């Protein structure tokens, strides 16, 4: 149980509702910032503007999955108010106050380090990233179906990257009968791609490998689908870029060539917010509980 713990939840999408539900069930006292348009009330939770929050009482701060925008803006679908989290806010929290987000960025790293607080990125954990890859794959299938007039079955599908998302995407497209090629750079990844029955290729040969692609799914958070690569693709190719913003595709060049390229962030929150929120809520309640026990042990 998380009784007596003061937890502030800043913005987010529908996934946060499951996080709120889980932590409320565990008895935490919740401060909800960026939820003024949410009709639903939760026991033990109070909605506030950021200016009303007493940061000196917070044990935990939970940010949206993307952390923040590049200047500290907190995304929220439940409010039109502008919310900016600053180092000054964090400096007012108790020494033990800990932040959680899905991923991080340079701004967040800076204010966390300036304030000397702890910060956990949930998607650094393999278990969270692997569970989260399930709704990500379902969202990818949805986007491909919506944006093509051919079946996935028999399509030439290229997956770039063979991490937690890339592996799940390759497996799902293969199961639907696509001809799946996967690009990676590590010999052990190339070996595993081959073992799983997909066609492996080294990313050094990417330009050569995309000449008959129907669907290209990028999971590499690095400029990889460059103008040189796009120029070798057939014009009917659909590019779905799953990598975190700004993605790994030269979108301007794709548009110039008439190739449809879509950046598709936050798919779990769009296609399965309940499941995706439960994944986050379960791990957060476990981590916060551990944090609380460690702190009590030290007192
Ligand atoms: P991951 O397990 O770290 O996998 C990343 C893959 O990219 C690995 O195969 C890695 O290869 C490769 N890679 C990274 N930098 C590279 C570079 N410079 N050159 C070549 N290959 C490189 O990450 P993940 O969990 O699969 O997530 C992948 C991306 O999807 C992340 O940006 C994540 O934020 C995003 N994501 C998006 C959604 C969505 O809804 N769109 C959902 C979940 C995750 P090496 O092992 O060789 O480094």
TrEMBL record:
Residues 6-116 form the Dipicolinate synthase subunit A N-terminal domain. It comes from the Bacteria. Residues 149-289 form the Alanine dehydrogenase/pyridine nucleotide transhydrogenase NAD(H)-binding domain. InterPro entries: AlaDH/PNT_NAD(H)-bd, Dipicolinic_acid_synth_A, DpaA_N, NAD(P)-bd_dom_sf. Signal peptide: none annotated. Pfam families: AlaDh_PNT_C, DpaA_N. NCBIfam families: PRK08306.1 (NF006162), spore_dpaA (TIGR02853). This is Dipicolinate synthase subunit A. It comes from Fictibacillus enclensis.
